[in-house]
Design goal:
This protein has 128 residues and is mainly α. It has a domain at 8-44. Helices cover 39% and strands 0% of the residues. The protein has helices at 13-26, 55-62, 66-71, 88-97, 110-116, 119-123. Helix 4 (88-97) packs antiparallel against helix 5. The longest helix is centred in the first third of the chain and has 14 residues, at 13-26.
């Protein structure tokens, strides 16, 4: 099950992610391996038009081949999330809360990036 929400916080994005990780831990989340099944997965997908740590690093992670994505993990928060434009399970729920938000580097809105996904990927995300 996936969902999206828009939140306001006085915390910087890294501190906000640390808070989300604490919440995951309270719900029994264990980080045994990358992309393993999990009881709870809370992520910071974007923070306005912020790019972290910089455009070059964000672009490097965004263009990383799939086999490298599966074995490598960044040592810091990368924003916007490097694979948000590729994931229906992220974009479809974001359509409910931020369809007009634009990726600061790619320029596409959530609605445009969602429309660019294969129909099958979008249909696989079923509302509850």
């Amino acid at each position: 099950m996936n969902g999206a929400l828009e939140a306001e916080s006085s915390l910087e994005p890294g501190a906000f992610l640390a808070l989300l990780n604490q919440i995951e831990s309270r719900f029994g989340r264990e980080r045994a391996s990358r992309w393993a099944g999990r009881t709870l997965d809370l992520d910071v997908i974007a923070h306005g038009q912020t790019v972290l740590p910089d455009a070059g690093t964000q672009g490097w992670w965004r263009r990383l081949p799939m086999e490298d994505q599966q074995r490598l993990a960044p040592d810091r928060l990368i924003l916007p999330h490097p694979r948000l434009q590729d994931r229906a399970f992220v974009l479809v729920p974001l359509m409910d809360v931020a369809p007009h938000w634009r990726h600061p580097l790619l320029g596409g809105s959530i609605a445009e990036m969602c429309a660019d996904l294969p129909d099958e990927d979008r249909r696989s995300v079923v509302p509850l």
